[in-house]
């Protein structure tokens, strides 16, 4: 059995297209879609989460909602 390979990168907000993009994990930026799951770095740990668009962009960690700030980049693992 082979281990799943993960890539680390960042999500950054693209103000021109009003969407979040994954940078550094792939050869070029990838748009993040609603409902997409990945792991976000919180402190020293990567926690599984899902991104959604409400009135603002949010990620859900189990039952906890976290609002994303467009001027901040977040470390993720995909």
From TrEMBL:
This is DUF5348 domain-containing protein. Residues 9-78 form the DUF5348 domain. InterPro entries: DUF5348 (IPR035255).
């Amino acid at each position: 059995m082979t281990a799943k390979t993960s890539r680390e990168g960042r999500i950054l907000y693209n103000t021109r297209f009003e969407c979040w993009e994954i940078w550094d994990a792939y050869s070029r930026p990838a748009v993040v879609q609603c409902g997409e799951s990945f792991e976000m770095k919180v402190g020293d740990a990567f926690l599984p989460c899902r991104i959604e668009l409400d009135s603002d962009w949010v990620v859900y960690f189990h039952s906890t909602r976290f609002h994303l700030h467009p001027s901040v980049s977040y470390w993720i693992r995909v």
